[in-house]
Target: RQC P-site tRNA stabilizing factor
Amino acid sequence: MRIDKFLKVSRLIKRRTVAKDVSDQGRVWINGRDAKASTHVKVGDELSIQFGQKKVTIRVELLTESTRKEDAAMMYTLLKEEAFQTE
Model:
C-alpha cells in the first residue's frame, strides 16, 4: 500500500492529498529513510511523521484498503511522540 493511502485510511492524516503533500515535502520517513507519496509500506515498518512542532513515530500493524473510524487505530501502534522546542 502506498504511504499516502495508508496515512489517509489509518486517519493519521484526514485527506489523501494532504498526506501526499506532507510526504513529498520530506516530512515522512519509513525505517529512517525519506519516503515519497508513492513509497510502499509493509506491516512491521516504522513510520515517523512530522506534524508542525511534533514528530510521531508509529509501527504499521495492519494494512486494509478501507476501514471504519473505530477500527482505524488498530492499523498502527504509537511508539513515540516528541515535541520540538521553539527558541
Observations:
- The domain at 3-83 is CATH 3.10.290.10 (Structural Genomics Hypothetical 15.5 Kd Protein In mrcA-pckA Intergenic Region; Chain A).
- Residues 16-24 form the longest helix (9 residues).
- The CA atoms of residues 58 and 79 lie 5 Å apart.
